[in-house]
Inverse folding.
C-alpha cells in the first residue's frame, strides 16, 4: 500500500522490518489478552535481532523494553540445556537462568499518538489487502497486460 514509482529496495526493506514489529505487537497483544498478564519486557532471539533498527522500532511499537541476549541463537542453546538437564549436567532451571546474559537493551521513546497512528495505518493496510487475489483456480493476467508474466 502506498507505493509510488520512487520506492526503492530500501523502502521495501524498511517495510519488511516494520511489518515484523507490527506483527509481533499483534502476537503480544493476543498473548496478553489470553493470559491476563501484561508483558513488561520482550526478550528476543534469532538472526533478525542483529538489526538494531528493527529492535528499536520494536521497542517503540510495543512501548516496552526489548532485550537481546548475549547468545542470539537460543534455539540450539535450548536444546543443549534440555539435554544438560536430562543428563544431570544442570541441576535445575536456576542453573540455566544463571547462564543468561543481556547483550543490548532498547527502550521505547516514541510518543503514544505517533505509535498508535502508525499501528492503525498498518492494520488498515493489512485489511485492505484481504481478498486481493480472486480465489478462483489460478490468477489470470488482464487482457493487454501480457508483459506481466
Amino acid at each position: 500500500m502506498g507505493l509510488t514509482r520512487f520506492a526503492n529496495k530500501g523502502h521495501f526493506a524498511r517495510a519488511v522490518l516494520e511489518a515484523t514489529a507490527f506483527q509481533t505487537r499483534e502476537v503480544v497483544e493476543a498473548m496478553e489478552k489470553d493470559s491476563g498478564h501484561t508483558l513488561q519486557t520482550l526478550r528476543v532471539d534469532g538472526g533478525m535481532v542483529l538489526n538494531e533498527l528493527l529492535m528499536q522500532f520494536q521497542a517503540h511499537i510495543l512501548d516496552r523494553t526489548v532485550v537481546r541476549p548475549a547468545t542470539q541463537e537460543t534455539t540450539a542453546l535450548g536444546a543443549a540445556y534440555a539435554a544438560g538437564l536430562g543428563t544431570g549436567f544442570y541441576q535445575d532451571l536456576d542453573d540455566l537462568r544463571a547462564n543468561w546474559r543481556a547483550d543490548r537493551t532498547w527502550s521505547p521513546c516514541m510518543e503514544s499518538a505517533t505509535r498508535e497512528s502508525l499501528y492503525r495505518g498498518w492494520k488498515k493496510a493489512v485489511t485492505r489487502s484481504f481478498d486481493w487475489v480472486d480465489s478462483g483456480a489460478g490468477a489470470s493476467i488482464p487482457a493487454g497486460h501480457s508483459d506481466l508474466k
User: Anything to note?
Assistant: The chain has a mean pLDDT of 89.
